[in-house]
Design brief:
Distance between the termini: 48 Å
CATH topology of the largest domain: Rossmann fold
CATH class of the largest domain: Alpha Beta
Low-confidence stretches: 366-370
Strand content: 5-15%
Shape: globular
Structural class: alpha/beta
Bound molecules: iron/sulfur cluster
Helix content: 40-55%
Number of strands: 9
Number of domains: 3
Strand order of the largest sheet: 7-6-8-9
Largest sheet: 4 strands, parallel
Radius of gyration: 20 Å
CATH architecture of the largest domain: 3-Layer(aba) Sandwich
Length: about 375
């Protein structure tokens, strides 16, 4: 039995013989309105491939493997706690989809999934090469919304009660390697994280605005038993929720202009890291009242369609997934959606909502180039 078949045999067999118990949960098959992209169907494709009855090296197979946000909504409803997203991610690299090959090559050449150079963005914020506490911005901030890094640092410094600076990182070591993880390129990801750990050796704790970075550098490192010495890693929202004092009432009159605030549980903070109450408590402190929520929330929260590199392969369907969340409870009116994930916030904005990052609510003031 090949290593690949051995690795996927149990999860794909469970799904292939399952009466689609998680069918309704998948943001992708719901957004694309197709049975061929349900968790069961995608895993059954792998089951057939493991039996030698289907090929994975064609465009249709690549499309199916890329049709997963990694949201774990299916896993939440699965009696077997079946790791569907990890299995699909693993299959991306194993079947050598063109995208997985391009990302692996780009990472090997530049340390970035798209060959981008982080030097200029990193130079816009104060950095330190040694500190008990430092800021790790992640690719989304660095390349899509660099002005928000200053706002994050303001908020983080306020929570810490002292000035906090960003990690001083070599341009090729600015990334947690999420794209390698999502493409199932685990050997390359482990090599990258091992080198990143060296670059982060001067810090005791790093704080990131992106729950995807925290998940990869903390939870995945632990789950895969990777033998590296990384700093403690947490998210900006978790750090601020542990230090709410400076935020009492800061958003009472300002952040949402008196509009109703609806909190959305991002998948990589909620289902992946199990963080549900701290953001709510933090928002209540800042707003002076508890935030509203979607009817499907916490472990049942609907996915914004923003993870797993899904917006890269299917931008319009990713937008439809975000729209589905916004429309699920009927008209949101002029409510503001607040989330603790930069990717989810951008997904909601692309779908036409007014969406705020937790940093916006807590009073980071250096602008927003979202
Ligand atoms: S993830 Fe679980 S519930 Fe969903 S198809 Fe597979 S075995 Fe069934
Ligand atoms: S992890 Fe999310 S996107 Fe992927 S198959 Fe499961 S429900 Fe669908």
């Amino acid at each position: 039995m090949s290593d690949f078949v051995e690795a996927v045999k149990k999860p794909v067999t469970l799904c292939a013989y399952c009466p689609k118990l998680c069918r309704f949960t998948c943001p992708v098959s719901e957004a694309e309105r197709t049975e061929t992209l349900t968790p069961t169907a995608k895993m059954t494709l792998l089951y057939l491939a493991s039996e030698g009855q289907a090929a994975l090296d064609d465009d249709d197979a690549a499309r199916a493997l890329e049709a997963c946000t990694g949201c774990d909504a299916c896993r939440e409803y699965c009696a077997h706690d079946n790791p569907v997203s990890e299995t699909l991610f693993f299959a991306r690299a194993e079947s050598g989809t063109p995208r997985s090959q391009a990302i692996a090559q780009s990472f090997a050449d530049t340390g970035d999934s798209k060959g981008r150079d982080a030097t200029a963005a990193l130079a816009t914020v104060p950095t330190t090469d040694k500190a008990a506490l430092a800021y790790f911005p992640g690719c989304m901030r660095l390349f899509k919304e660099p002005a928000r890094m200053g706002a994050d640092l303001q908020v983080l410094s306020r929570a810490a009660g002292t000035e906090v600076k960003a990690c001083a990182l070599p341009a090729q070591k600015h990334c947690c390697g999420y794209a390698l993880y999502a493409e199932g390129a685990y050997a390359a990801w482990e090599a990258h994280v091992t080198e990143l750990a060296e670059a982060l050796s001067g810090y005791d704790t790093i704080v990131t605005p992106d729950p995807g970075c925290a998940y990869v550098l903390s939870d995945v490192v632990k789950a895969r038993g990777l033998d590296v010495k990384l700093p403690a890693v947490t998210t900006l929202v978790e750090y601020c929720a542990d230090n709410t004092g400076p935020f009492a009432g800061v958003a009472r009159d300002r952040a949402a202009d008196g509009r109703r605030v609806v909190y959305h549980d991002a998948c990589y903070l909620g289902r992946k890291r199990g963080v549900y109450e701290p953001p709510r408590a933090l928002l209540e402190t800042a707003l002076g009242a508890p935030p509203a929520g979607f009817t499907q929330c916490k472990a049942d929260a609907m996915c914004s369609g923003s993870g797993g590199l899904y917006p890269m392969s299917s931008p319009e369907h990713a937008k439809a997934a975000a729209r589905r969340v916004l429309d699920h409870d009927g008209d949101l009116g002029d409510a503001v959606v607040v989330t603790s994930c930069p990717s989810a916030r951008r997904g909601f904005e692309r779908a036409g909502a007014t969406a705020l990052d937790i940093t916006d609510v807590l009073g980071g003031e250096e602008g927003n180039d979202g």
